[in-house]
Amino acid sequence: SEPLFTPKGENNAVFVVTQDYLTSDYENIGLQLSSRFGEDASELIPLKEVQNPPDLSVAMELDRKSEFSLFIPKHRDMANSLINSFMGVPQDQLQDLLATCAFVRDKVNPQLYNYALSVALLHRNDTKDIRIPNFAETFPSKFVDSKAFQQAREVAKIIPKTDRTRTPIIIPKDFTATDLDEEHRIAYFREDIGINLHHWHWHLVYPFSTNRELVDKDRRGELFFYMHQQIIARYNCERLCNFLPRVKRFSNFREPIPEAYFPKLDSLTSSRAWPPRRANMKWQDVNREVDSIKMTITDIENDRKNIEDAISLGLAERPDGTMTPLTIDMLGNMVEAGILSINRAKYGDLHNRGHILAAYVHDPDHRFLELFAIMGDTAINMRDPVFYRWHAFIDDLFQRFKSSPAVPPYGRGELNNPGVMVTGISVSDGGSQLNKLNTFWMQSDVDMSRGLDFSDRGTVLVRFSHLNHQPFNYMINVNNTGAAERTTVRIFLSPKNDERNLPWQLADQRVMFIELDRFVTPLQKGAQKITHRSDQSSICIPFESTFRTLKRNQTDETNENVAFNFCGCGWPQHMLIPKGTPQGMPFQLFVMLSNYELDKIEQPPSTAQCQDDASSFCGIKDRLYPDRRAMGFPFDRPSTSAATIDEFLTPNMAVQDITIQFSDMTVQNPRNPQ
Ligand code: CUO
Fold first, then answer.
1. What is the pTM of this model?
2. Using CA positions, which residue lies closest to atom 4 of ligand 1?
């Protein structure tokens, strides 16, 4: 797959092309181009003639030098048509697929091409296990300070290829703002490359498409709710670690947005800087002929009202006017909203419209010929504080539903696990103190050469800083006097106190609990100890899956052989736990051993290459979501009987106070080349 994703000018592998494959700009010099780039190619890839050239009339409407947004309906149509072209190549005819890709690649917008091809490769049966290059490497401009690219050119020009791994370009930790802006205190979370890659990948696995085959996945709407709910919970935990209050939801759509954001990113596609947003800008009606968007604030207010009515009634209206009981899955699809929405005419396009209105706040009528801002791009929108205000609003809708009569609180029978008693829990990261976890800064290298479009690139490393922690173990003591032979272990974490340093009411704390892990384990009779490693978390993918990194002492030449797990969906391991504070911040660790009879999903094991990595946030490819309970169980809905977490506990649950201490020191990733 690699050459299909690399920009023109790449010299590791070259397609032998005929004139059909080139855009009209280059058709007269096509064969010269082919031989020029072929001069020092490591591999020549002959192509078949394209049997049925795809109709690119829709996809080619997007300028090749423009940005691409999944939130813009017209762009979604273009992506659909291109995805369908790739999906339409007959199964197991990989040479035809390759020829089709090469035929399409230089004719359409590169980002549209990358998205449509990635979706198709992930969903075609014959390409499911193919490697998709890391998106941060293909489009580094979405992740790295724009200043770095000038430096990259210099490095590529001046430093011989063999020495480049010794001279990484250092990206400072604080490149978008200073602490004068208090929101900048959590920029390390918003701008984390791994977090943004996870979000981009999630939307790739759960694409917007009119092709039901790609969209209609088990509990998709509920997962849209849950994965984004956990993002907000994690953001709020991180805010408390930095002495900031929980994020305020964006509720009055006509009020100014207090947060500003200046991304310092350039789009290499459009050769323009991503537009910034000043403080206190307001949503305005959007009317941009160029993007075929006409959208008013009243439109989105109507969507909101209709959805709020459905939540209060506990009923949704079908297109034929009949009513049906609302479920969380239905609500997720209705809010997001794609083709699975029960009634798009009635419930509209609430979530996507919010992204659009936020993304065009700086140029709603295109008078300044500006492109959309980063809220319009799933690979970078988590960098902007307004993302969290918007998704806090979206989450509030779901929480209202979860608190409504349509969702009865859990009874003891659902929470308890007969005969199973948790007698103690602890965590240890090998340090001298039990129940104390440690965080720090780490510097890691990423090779961004794949996304640079000048030739003779070799490796160009970027060294960036990110949070990390000492890996740790959970120890759970259990006494089993019942008949249970297996159990699902559910592990969550929440700050012990709120922003005023007061203990939580459960009603507030339940939405602060972040999932750390969920796994099924056998139970014996009597007393036993379950030990589990933090790096096996069901929400995370390992560091090597987030980034393809060079291994120590590895040379540029062997880099290509590093296994890159194509299943890039998953929270980055290095962000598993919140930062804590230098003084040590109190948290509560919650463990539940639930009744497996009520949890289990019987299905054949996955054969996909990524198996069930990160299944809590990403599901499992081509399988049912591997847990029968509501996502977020047991905290997905309020309790009517318990006011505090202690009152909520049944014998199969336990809570332990722990501390997370942050040390302001930077260590090198041991995988960085020396
Ligand atoms: Cu993931 Cu709003 O859904 O960005």
1. 0.91
2. 378
Residue 209 in tokens:
């498409």
The catalytic residue positions are 336
Q: What is the mean pLDDT of residues 586-593?
A: 98
Domains and CATH numbers, the chain: 2-130 (1.20.1370.10), 182-402 (1.10.1280.10), 412-668 (2.60.40.1520)
The rounded Å distance from CA 336 to ligand 1 centre is: 8
Number of Cβ within 10 Å of residue 8's Cβ equals: 12
Quick: pLDDT tens for 641-671. Answer: 999 999 999 999 999 999 999 999 999 988 8
Task: Judge contact between 630 and 494, C-beta under 8 A.
Answer: no
Ligand 1 centre distance from Cα of residue 579 (Å): 24
Residue with tokens 């905290």: 635
| 240: Cβ contacts below 8 Å, ≥ 6 apart | 246, 495, 498, 499, 585
The tens digit of pLDDT for each residue in 281-314 reads 999 999 999 999 999 999 999 999 999 999 999 9
Instruction: Tell me, rounded to whole angstroms, the distance of Cα 140 from its chain centroid.
Output: 16
CB of 440 closer than 8 Å to CB of 662: yes
Tell me, in angstroms, the distance from the centre of ligand 1 to residue 240's CA.
Answer: 23
Distance CA 1, CA 604 (A): 29
Q: Is the peptide bond before 279 cis (omega within 30 degrees of 0)?
A: no
In eight-state DSSP terms, residue 551 is: P
Instruction: Indicate the SS3 state at residue 47.
Output: coil
User: Strand 13-16 relative to strand 420-428: parallel, antiparallel, unpaired?
Assistant: unpaired
Tell me the C-alpha to C-alpha distance, in Å, between residue 606 and each of 521, 602, 622, 624: 18, 12, 8, 10
**Residue type (1 letter), 200:** W
Q: Which atom of ligand 1 is nearest to the CA of 390?
A: 2
Residue 7 near residue 110, CB atoms below 8 Å: yes
Measured in Å, residue 378 CA sits from the centre of ligand 1 at: 7
Ligand 1: residues with CB < 6 A are 199, 203, 228, 351, 355, 378, 381, 391
Rounded to whole angstroms, the Cα distance separating 405 from 626 reads 27
Residues found in the chain: 674
Could you give the CA distance from residue 82 to residue 117 in angstroms, rounded to a whole number? 8
Ligand 1 atom closest to Cα of 351?
A: 2
From its phi and psi, is residue 9 left (phi > 0), alpha (psi between -120 and 50) or beta?
left
Residue of 228, 375, 390, 571 to test ligand 1 pocket, by largest number of atoms within 8 Å of CB: 228
